[in-house]
Design a protein that fits this description.
Helix content is 33%, strand content 14%. Strand 4, helix 5 and strand 5 form a beta-alpha-beta unit. The longest helix has 15 residues. The chain is globular, with a radius of gyration of 16 Å. The two termini are 22 Å apart.
Length: 172
Amino acid sequence: MGSEMCIRDRFTQAPPYGQQIPNGEPKTAGEFPEIQPTAHKLGAKVIVRLPDFYPKFPYNYSNEQDWLNHVKTMVTAAQQNSDDVYAYELWNEPNANWNNSWGNFDQVWKDTYHVVKAIAPNAKILGPSLNGWNGGGWMKSFLTYCRDNNVLPDYICWHEWNAANFPKEACL
């Protein structure tokens, strides 16, 4: 298999200082610092999902400056074990849970991208993590913005809950 990892060698976890309470658990669970030692022993890499800093989904985003301050703290902490970080996921399902009163998502993506890269220039970025494939409207607009602003993700991500819905055009 060479130097490439199998998909089973990567998984997504909350960031350092994450407050996400997953799947009805009574308290936070699975943030990067808790998982990293085991991942390291197994030779696995972790995708750090930054918005899982917030306790509940959909997220309780307050404003961009507050968010960027948290991003700085989370990425700085994760970089202490940077060999175990596969990528940083900048947001989760923005096409379904981004509230336009928070501002322009594309601008927040760009600013978040720059904060991550300022701390970790070689970090890989994963996104936009849509709630399902959308190759036309939302995805096309987002990727065009990213291309034009030099903030393209290294890995395109979306969630697919039904294999029958997996789009053939996504594999081109």
